[in-house]
Design a protein that fits this description.
The structure is a homodimer of 381-residue chains.
Chain A (H helix, E strand, L loop, with lengths): L8 E7 L2 H8 L6 E3 L9 E3 L5 H9 L8 E2 L2 H4 L1 H10 L4 E6 L9 H5 L2 H15 L4 E6 L7 H13 L3 E6 L14 H9 L4 E3 L20 H22 L1 H4 L5 E3 L6 H13 L2 H9 L5 H7 L1 E4 L5 H10 L8 E2 L19 H14 L4 H15 L5
Parallel strand pairs in A: 1-5, 5-6, 6-7, 7-8, 8-9, 9-10, 10-11
Antiparallel strand pairs in A: 2-3, 3-4
């Protein structure tokens, strides 16, 4: 069926705003930005712990391979973001800071003015393009006290274009199933700010074996990232966070990691664990399927019709109303075509939506923007 | 559509035959079988490295919780297996040794007569129930030389009821992408023995966080197991094993772990990695989708319609011809009903097949047994 067309919305699109780049440039440890002189015309962005050895080598041996990735204008330029949106006919973007967010700040730094600076930088960018840009704020999760985080939620809520928060899987340092994080989730639920959950740490390199160097970043990015997200959200589920904070809404990156595919096995494992099953019954816990359809939204960044159909089916009878298109810009630029033109990575995900939901259908239209517009209230208040 | 009914075949069903139990009972280190005296009427089966601390505690403190799981007759009794098959209307079972197989043997033990003893034990059991039992053999992967493994493949092929081999993800100790394992895969392809790939190690416990003790075995079993399988098979894919050994056939446990859901992301990550893409083009490597439909079969042990549909769709246009029902017996016994009756875990997977492919359809019939019968040639030769 066809219907009046919704705006196209990209809910998974990152930036490192100028203030954030300054922080990274001043750092000696990963994450950092560094210029390797004549070896490279762009400064390099080095984010992952796995890049420590190559960074150390490059600092000692000028001829060694340059670590990280080029910090192109795609990471920090608002003009570039708007150009990318126009090229791909994206009407609205919900910007978020990319990983590792502010998770590396010392407690003192996180408790100072810096986090607000970043969020204000996003608000400023949104105001330059009314109706086209909104953002997910970043919380100072390593702060000296929970109160600092709660205050940051209040401040973020006060910013006109803030529509949620982005969060990694570390929480206060012990993961998202940490009981000390429940007050933060409660405050987010109260403020009606959904959490966009995004991976950063992946899995320990040991699981990728001695030949991993031959495979580039494929194993950590294609497998480690979605597996990290899945583990984080299942830990939340098993700890009872969703039942303790029924108002909490989570948007899971990469269509939930692997949660849609594994939900049945998770449910079966709970049903076959005596102690856990007893606790679930006593506390009247809901099934993972109920949580998926009542508190979880999935983005559409899964690069296949197969994955997208599973994501929709896992989200309940009206699963197509819970899916939100995203691009993951500025990551995964095209290798063989002009970066200023259309990106293959965007095309793969848009094509998956068309194939899974039907070209020109109302459902595809909702996934491409209607759902995000409705759920995140993407209009000027 | 309806059709003449195929036999119901269970391709994912384990046993620890008597010879194997003797080995485990004689061991001091995990894996082992141990009786904790008055504390427990059954001896306990302790398999996982994660159980080391609880084993050590139980050996020192008599009142400590008993580690592992009861070694019930379901693990070692052929009569119990036949009863289970009859109860669930399973016509044929393709038995396999359960993890950790023979992966813990010293090189000397693996190179001696012991591995053949285990395979002969399976052959003996199959001969007791003609037409109802076949098996996947176990290879002495830790042997002193590759030749010992190759000889074992020849011997296994000579056993009348052997229809493939079961394998974990360790290979010769460095994973399944180890170049030294290619001759083994070539010999298996030559012998037309498919590899049933099954997890054992899971992921390092560090990923489950400080509260993991509250979640029983759910995280390692529901997430670690399928993630381990996925990582292993993707490492094989990236190393080019499938292209190097086009005759190799793999049957992936738990519907491929998470491979059907992540295949699109894997493909996209390869397309966006310059060095890897160049190598793939030079070597004319196939896509992960091609490998899935040409060299991979998936079992149906995924406990949900959502997962099963994704498994079928990921296996190509005729994906329903590549799916094979399994039970994972004797694991996941029912907690609240008689173990001699119907098992909920079996019902969940059979129901998923009916829902995904249509009650009474030809496709459901093939998934429940027709495919396994055809692919594994489950008839007396």
């Amino acid at each position: 069926m066809t219907a009046s067309k919704s705006k196209v919305v990209d809910i998974h699109t990152h930036m490192y705003p100028p203030e954030y780049i300054s922080i990274l440039t001043s750092r000696q440890n990963i994450p950092l930005v560094r210029n390797f002189g004549d070896n490279s015309k762009d400064p390099r962005l080095i984010l992952l712990e796995a890049e420590v050895p190559s960074l150390q080598l490059a600092l000692q041996v000028p001829s060694a391979p340059i670590p990280g990735r080029p910090l192109t204008s795609h990471y920090a330029s608002l003009g570039q973001k708007i150009h990318f949106m126009d090229t791909h006919k994206i009407d609205i973007s919900v910007l978020s800071l990319a990983n590792p967010w502010l998770d590396f700040l010392t407690p003192e730094e996180a408790s100072g003015p810096l986090p607000a600076t970043i969020n204000n930088d996003f608000e400023r960018m949104c105001q330059l393009h009314p109706g086209r840009l909104y953002f997910f704020a970043t919380l100072p999760l390593t702060a000296l006290s929970t109160q600092v985080i709660l205050d940051s939620i209040t401040s973020s809520k006060g910013l006109k274009h803030c529509r949620g928060v982005i969060m990694g899987t570390s929480g206060l340092g012990k993961g998202l199933d940490d009981p000390n994080l429940v007050p933060v989730f409660k405050a987010l639920a109260e403020a009606e700010l959904p959490v966009f959950l995004h991976p950063h740490n992946g899995l320990p390199n040991s699981v990728y074996g001695p030949q991993q160097k031959d495979y580039g970043h494929v194993l950590p990015l294609a497998l480690g990232f979605p597996m990290e997200t899945t583990i984080a959200v299942v830990r939340m589920y098993l700890a009872g966070v969703f039942d303790a904070v029924p108002g909490l809404r989570m948007i899971l990156a990469h269509s939930g990691g692997t949660l849609p595919f594994l939900a049945g096995r998770i449910e079966s494992c709970v049903l076959h664990d005596g102690a856990l099953l007893k606790k679930f019954k006593e506390e009247k816990r809901r099934s993972v399927w109920d949580v998926l359809k009542e508190q979880v939204y999935l983005d559409a960044v899964v690069y296949s019709e197969v994955g997208l159909k599973a994501a929709i089916a896992a989200s309940g009878e009206k699963g197509e109303e819970r899916l939100m298109f995203g691009t993951d810009h500025p990551f995964f630029p095209p290798l063989e075509t002009d970066e200023q033109g259309e990106w293959e990575s965007v095309g793969l995900n848009a094509q998956a939506v068309r194939k899974a939901l039907g070209e020109g259908s109302k459902e595809a239209d909702m996934a491409m923007g209607g759902n995000a517009f409705r759920v995140l209230k993407l209009f000027e208040k």
